[in-house]
């Protein structure tokens, strides 16, 4: 047997409760070695780099899948092994690079030289059946990249903290109605210094209020961890903060893993409501879909990230933009698993989907603030095929939000589109934080928007929240409106954004040059001129981005 993954102990917060019963059923997934991931990356850059003659000529579902389809030898080796153990399987991706099957714990222990135990989370009481190590037969080691669930524990986190309830509607800044001063330099209402609303973001970034016109243009919002977007709360939000559009404007729903659409006010999720209210409320007229990932992943299991991407890969017409306000610490995910999931995002990018992730809320200490020595990168922000969104605060001037997660991946090398911008930042950084981060890794975030004091409505109550969860749906809305303008002009959606952002659009972003993201007992990274590891290339200027997009 060849060891594929091992951890010395469960992650912080988990304790072992004992061996899992041999009769307990597990649904396992095997990631097969992909045939040509380098070809996929080349194809992705070919259709995403503005100087390429194939820019915007996105791949079909079948063309993208062909790059990651396992070889006939790999498929035959793994399926023969399963058949020899009387296990039936199904392919769960169009490429057939993920296989799924169900076995009991006793069988899984024998197949993978594993010891599945029950682990209990000390705070939530949730349990997970996991193993500290697993192996595959030596002759399969070149054909199998990863097995899930094995050593990966539930760890998906929302990047929006608990809502602060607004107790008085008369407090300055909590209504779009009434008198307020307008800053002469920015043209933004002074009330936006206290509370951010859609009109604040529209003024600050030049986001248009006119409705999108192209029905083919769609925006997807990811929902995990029993977070449900409430339609009545959206209606209340629009009636207060977007009085220029019908308050009956709503969103569509797609579900997987027995996802639900609970509409009782008490079931409304802060994260889900935030994401929907600032996509529907900013991407005016864009068809917006909430994608609810269900009960199998209600405790924050990585399977939710796998499932939603597999779900979208199967669609003939996935959304043109996908925003996700959840993430993990990179080290919580085995490297091969992270690479495989990153390649799934590359497939969607090659097909013309812009994938945005909130960078995290722990500064340099990871997805949430935690004790650390070395800096903690986050995932999927560290995937070079996604666009990571950090956060700012303040209006004049706009500065980095201290919680904005940023840094450098330990798994993924710096991509070519970042060489100049990130190289310049590292030169300017000098010896600051030397040895605490991987200076050759993919840098994140890529861009930023406001991320503090966002007004939302949850269960009928108005309140405010902070987090990069505010920033990702905001930037996603900008991209969706750019895509609408491109569709109206007869051109393709922007797709994978980063090569365009770094080559063509960096001058179309507002450079943030002050603030930092402390953590791990340090001041973290400083915001500087150009790209930085707190706010990326900066915040959007819609008119300039429209020009950069050829409109």
From TrEMBL:
The organism's place on the tree of life at top rank: Eukaryota
CDD domains associated with the record: Peptidases_S53, Pro-peptidase_S53
Active site: 271, 275, 469
Subcellular localization(s) per the UniProt record: Secreted, Extracellular space
Protein's name according to its UniProt entry: tripeptidyl-peptidase II
Enzyme category, top tier: hydrolase
Ranges of residues in domain Peptidase S53: 195-551
Coiled coil feature spans: none
GO molecular function annotations of the record: metal ion binding; serine-type endopeptidase activity; tripeptidyl-peptidase activity
GO CC list: extracellular region
Binding site for Ca(2+): 511-512, 530, 532
EC number: 3.4.14.10
Catalytic activity: Release of an N-terminal tripeptide from a polypeptide
């Amino acid at each position: 047997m060849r060891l594929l993954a091992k951890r010395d102990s469960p992650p912080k917060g988990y304790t072992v409760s004992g061996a899992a019963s041999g009769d307990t059923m597990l649904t396992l997934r095997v990631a097969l070695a992909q045939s040509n991931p380098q070809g996929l990356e080349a194809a992705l850059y070919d259709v995403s780099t503005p100087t390429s003659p194939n820019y915007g000529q996105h791949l079909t579902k079948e063309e993208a899948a062909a790059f990651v389809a396992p070889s006939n030898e790999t498929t035959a080796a793994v399926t023969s092994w399963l058949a020899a153990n009387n296990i039936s399987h199904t392919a769960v991706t169009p490429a057939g690079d993920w296989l799924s099957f169900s076995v009991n714990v006793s069988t899984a222990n024998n197949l993978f030289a594993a010891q599945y135990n029950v682990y209990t989370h000390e705070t939530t009481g949730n349990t997970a059946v996991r193993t500290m190590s697993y192996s595959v037969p030596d002759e399969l080691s070149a054909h199998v990249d990863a097995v899930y669930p094995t050593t990966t524990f539930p760890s998906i986190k929302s990047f929006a903290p608990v809502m602060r309830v607004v107790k008085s509607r008369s407090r300055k800044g909590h209504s779009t109605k009434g008198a307020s001063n307008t800053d002469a330099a920015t043209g933004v209402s002074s009330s936006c210094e206290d509370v951010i609303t859609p009109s604040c973001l529209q003024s600050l970034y030049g986001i248009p209020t006119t409705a999108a016109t192209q029905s083919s243009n769609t925006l997807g919002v990811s929902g995990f961890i029993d977070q449900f977007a409430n339609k009545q709360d959206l209606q209340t939000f629009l009636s207060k903060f977007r009085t220029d559009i019908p308050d009956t404007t709503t969103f569509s729903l797609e579900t997987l893993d027995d996802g639900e659409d609970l509409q009782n006010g008490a079931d409304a999720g802060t994260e889900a409501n935030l994401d929907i209210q600032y996509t529907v409320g900013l991407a005016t007229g864009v068809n917006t879909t909430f994608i609810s990932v269900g009960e199998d992943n209600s405790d924050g299991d990585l399977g939710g990230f796998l499932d939603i991407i597999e779900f979208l890969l199967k669609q003939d017409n996935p959304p043109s933009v996908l925003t996700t306000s959840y993430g993990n610490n990179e080290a919580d995910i085995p490297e091969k698993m992270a690479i495989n999931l990153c390649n799934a995002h590359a497939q969607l990018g090659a097909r013309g989907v812009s994938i945005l992730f909130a960078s995290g809320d722990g500064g340099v200490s990871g997805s949430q603030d935690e004790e650390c020595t070395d800096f903690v990168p986050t995932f999927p922000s560290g995937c070079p095929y996604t666009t990571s969104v950090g956060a700012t605060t303040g209006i004049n001037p706009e500065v980095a939000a201290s919680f904005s997660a940023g840094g450098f991946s330990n798994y993924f090398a710096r991509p070519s589109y970042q060489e100049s911008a990130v190289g310049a930042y590292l030169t300017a950084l000098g010896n600051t934080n030397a040895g605490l981060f991987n200076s050759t890794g993919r840098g994140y975030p890529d861009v930023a928007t406001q991320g503090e004091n966002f007004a939302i409505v949850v269960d009928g109550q108005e309140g405010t929240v902070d987090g990069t969860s505010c920033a990702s749906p905001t930037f996603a809305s900008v991209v969706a409106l750019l895509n609408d303008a491109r569709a109206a002009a007869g051109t393709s959606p922007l797709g994978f954004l980063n090569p365009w952002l770094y080559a063509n659009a960096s001058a179309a972003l507002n450079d943030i040059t002050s603030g930092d993201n402390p953590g791990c007992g340090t001041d973290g990274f400083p915001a500087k001129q150009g790209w930085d590891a707190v706010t990326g290339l900066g915040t959007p200027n819609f008119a300039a981005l429209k020009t950069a997009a050829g409109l």
